[in-house]
Design a protein that fits this description.
Blueprint: H1 3-27, H2 32-44, H3 46-56, H4 63-79, H5 84-87, H6 97-108, E1 113-121, H7 124-135, E2 141-146, H8 156-167, E3 171-177, H9 178-183, H10 187-197, E4 200-204, E5 219-220, E6 224-227, E7 231-235, H11 247-252, E8 255-257, E9 260-264, H12 267-283, E10 302-309, H13 317-328, E11 332-336, E12 340-341, H14 344-355, E13 359-365, H15 371-378, H16 381-387, E14 390-394, E15 398-400, E16 404-407, E17 411-415, E18 419-420, H17 421-426, E19 427-435, H18 437-452, E20 454-457, H19 459-463, H20 467-479
Parallel strand pairs: 2-3, 3-4, 5-19, 8-15, 11-13, 12-18, 13-14
Antiparallel strand pairs: 1-9, 1-10, 2-6, 6-7, 7-9, 10-19, 11-16, 14-20, 16-17, 17-19
Helix pairs in contact: 1-2, 2-3, 4-12, 6-13, 7-8, 13-14, 15-20
């Protein structure tokens, strides 16, 4: 055997060993579709595949971070009676709703609580104005957590309100995703403004290739503001101008449409518990997790439950909630998601709901700022349309960025999570589940406005699109499996 043959045999043996090792490593506790996609990458481009897998192949946070989540979860479970979810049970619940409450309690520890009120906010600058008004009434503390937090011409009133709160002696704690702060403008201005006012500011999931011990694209995608534990805001909005300062957005005239909620009632303290968890994870400082007796349910009030999710948990919490909710709906389902690249279980649940005779509709943007995700999500339209799902494309140049589901006439789920693989498994998110006809009616009014500003997509039109678009859509779909 000559030298060339020896080298060839050695390379082949090394390739086989890499495949066998990778197959064993990848297949453990991973979805088959994702495992197969990674294995194909390693087989056909072994060096690049192994490097990519080492960088982004593990979808969980390091053990110490998961231990912190478990510690906080145990504290939350211990502070409230074990049957608290049953205490909030209402005769107005759909017969299937109690199982979702139990699911969320089991996965995220937070109970379903009565006597809440929610106001839906759709005007971009109006959302900021409402937060400013509430911050100006703060007496004890303001907790701020945003995936993207930028002090610019649009958000300056928010930062001004925080500064006024600090002048009154109010404690201001601020969290934002570290990678987002690195990739958006005015990073130094934002940090300096928070420092000058005396806010306690920390970056979430700080990027450190040497010390982090995790894949670098695990992100904290939550958005919330809590004032004195009495008023809370959460939803899809990032604290930045509605064009996100993106060159392509400015050139194309794109701007983002959001949906936020202003919350009052016991659910606000559960929103605060999510902030306390993230604060502890980043600072090792444990904020109070006080339990107070539940007030009597008032007229017109809502039952509400917060569900946190993400790679600090052992399960894909919001994925399980979405799939269970879709399977249990009886008459109507409306889904709104800017990035729709669903897990197979969610896709099957939507298709099955349509086959069961339900009215099922999906609202997505006709334009997008994310090239790969935009084309990947289009690859799902044919299957949905064939099943009878109505798809509405929100007119450009607006990017519909809201994230919510309405079910029948009694259940709404609103929050920060997209219905894509990244939000379902890799990002830290939070959703709020409601039971109450008033919140669903309000959300239906928002969806009616979407429909009026959208164009319905039909199967015949979709099948006639150019082959190059079909090819690109399907290729981009394959990339979504690499998790």
């Amino acid at each position: 055997m000559n030298d060339v043959s020896i080298w060839a045999a050695s390379l082949l043996a090394a390739h086989v060993l890499i495949i066998l090792f990778t197959a064993f490593s990848i297949s453990a506790n991973r979805k088959p579709s994702s495992a197969l996609a990674w294995l194909l990458v390693v087989i056909f481009v072994p060096l690049l595949g192994v490097v990519a897998y080492l960088l982004i192949g593990t979808a969980k946070l390091p053990q110490d971070r998961r231990d912190k989540q478990r510690f906080i979860t145990e504290l939350i479970m211990a502070r409230t009676p074990g049957d608290l979810g049953a205490a909030a049970r209402s005769t107005t619940w759909p017969d299937w709703f109690g199982t979702l409450v139990t699911l969320n309690r089991t996965l995220g520890a937070l109970p379903m609580l009565p006597n809440n009120h929610a106001e839906l906010l759709t005007d971009y600058e109006g959302m900021i104005a409402r937060m400013v008004d509430d911050i100006d009434r703060a007496e004890k503390y303001v907790h701020v957590e945003f995936f993207i937090l930028v002090c610019d011409e649009t958000t300056a009133p928010f930062f001004d309100a925080l500064a006024r709160a600090r002048e009154r002696g109010v404690t201001v704690r601020v969290l934002t995703d570290h990678l987002s702060q690195l990739t958006y403008p005015f990073r130094r201005r934002t940090a300096e403004r928070l420092a000058r006012m005396g806010a306690e500011y920390h970056a979430m999931l700080p990027i450190s290739p040497i010390r982090s011990g995790r894949r670098l694209d695990l992100r904290n995608h939550r958005k919330l503001v809590v004032i004195d534990g009495l008023i809370g805001h959460t939803g899809s909005m990032n604290l930045i101008a509605d064009h996100y300062h993106k060159r392509t957005a400015l050139r194309r005239g794109l701007h983002w449409r959001e949906l936020m909620m202003r919350l009052q009632g016991p659910v606000v303290r559960e929103l605060d518990a999510v902030f306390a968890t993230d604060w502890y994870s980043e600072t090792d400082e444990l904020l109070p997790l006080d339990y107070t007796e539940l007030p009597e349910t008032g007229p017109g009030a809502l039952d509400a439950q917060v569900l946190p999710s993400g790679p600090s948990f052992e399960a894909d919490n919001n994925l399980k909630l979405f799939a269970a909710a879709l399977h249990n709906a009886r008459r109507r389902v409306s889904v709104t998601s800017p990035y729709f690249v669903p897990d197979q279980s969610v896709l099957d649940a939507m298709v099955t709901a349509a086959h069961r005779g339900l009215e099922v509709e999906l609202f997505v943007a006709a334009s997008s700022d994310q090239f790969m995700v935009y084309h990947a999500q289009r690859s799902y339209y044919e299957e949905l349309l064939r099943a009878g799902v109505r798809i509405f494309l929100y007119h450009a140049p607006t990017v519909l960025h809201a994230k919510h589901i309405s079910l029948d006439d009694e259940v709404a789920i609103i929050g920060t999570s997209n219905m894509d693989e990244r939000s379902l498994s890799l990002h830290m998110e939070l959703m709020v589940m409601f039971s109450g006809e008033s919140i669903v009616a309000d959300l239906r009014a928002v969806e009616d406005d979407y429909r009026a500003r959208s164009r319905e997509l039909h199967l015949e039109e979709w099948l006639a699109r150019p082959y190059r678009e079909q090819w690109l859509d399907n290729v981009m779909r394959l990339t979504s499996a690499l998790m």
